[in-house]
Amino acid sequence: MTHTCFNVEINDHIAHVRMIRPERANSMIPEFWHELPAIINQLSEGDEARVIVLSAEGRHFCSGMDLSVFAGDNDISVPGTSSHISRHRASFRTTALNLQRSFTSLEESRLPVLCAIQGACIGGGIDMVSATDLRYATTDAFFSIQEINIGMTADVGTLQRMPKLIPEGIVRELAYTGRNMPASEAKERGFVNEVYADQDEMTDAVFAIAKEIASKSPMAIWGTKQTLNYGRDHSVADGLEYIATWNAAMFDPDDMAEAFTAQSEKRDPEFPEHKRFRKGI
Question: Angle of helix 218-233 relative to helix 236-250, nearest 10 degrees?
Answer without folding.
Answer: 160
